[in-house]
Amino acid sequence: RIIRVSRQGLDSSQQPGQVWCLRDITQQKLSEKMRDQFIDTATHELRTPLSNIKAYAETLVTCDEIDVEQQKEFCNIINSEVTRLARFVDDLLSISSMEMGSLTIERQKVDTERLFEEVLEKIEPLVQKKNITFSSELPEKMPEIKIDKDKIVAVLVNLLGNAVKYTPEGGHVTLRVKIEHSMLDFAIEDTGVGIAEEELPKVFDKFFRSADPRIQEETGTGLGLSLAHEVVQMHGGEITVESVLNQGTTFLVSIPLEGAS
Ligand code: ADP
Description:
two-stranded antiparallel sheet; 9 strands; about 25% strand; histidine kinase
């Protein structure tokens, strides 16, 4: 708790005495910290991709000496920076709907096989870029399930993306999925940098990013896990985390296939 104490003396015409005011400003300090974190993240996440896009686009426009291979490489960089910008804007919009209480989920019948194909397609390029191994254990029977497909895909991609991002070269990431007793359960396990015990309760907070330099050297906004938490809760499910610093992290998600929204 942060308590601001101020003392107000009384003037000589009044009875001698003092009034002490105690005001709990914890909430105010938390919002100030959150605002500063938001400004830092927004500045970085908007400025960095924009200046990269500008630099590569300018080179493409003005430089005649670049060959077709290089042109393709620059276009790929521009494309991935635009994707990064779009993801940040989408996350901000979702966080803002979450704050206003207008984030909704729309359960629809989903072909589970197609769902995991989509997730693995999105994760593959990230795994390819890094010298880590990835394995998935999917159920043999893939029944049709009723969830908000796009939002659950985003949760899975975020958790798997983090596992890949925060696992150094040579490490391993595993996705385990179970669908039984009307529950969709998945575990995402990595052998990465891990999370310090004192930071574990904060990982689902908006804008939280660990101060660990191995985390800071990767790009990120601190929004993914708070959105994942909200989406899982809106499905009536639960998301938890277990981690040992320098050994690895496991995120566990459990979602009822019908029911509370
Ligand atoms: P981002 O990855 O963009 O920073 P997230 O909201 O997805 O934001 O995650 C919040 C923070 O939780 C990360 O910055 C990191 O400190 C921690 N974290 C999340 N996943 C992992 C993981 N698999 N291993 C280690 N730390 C993690």
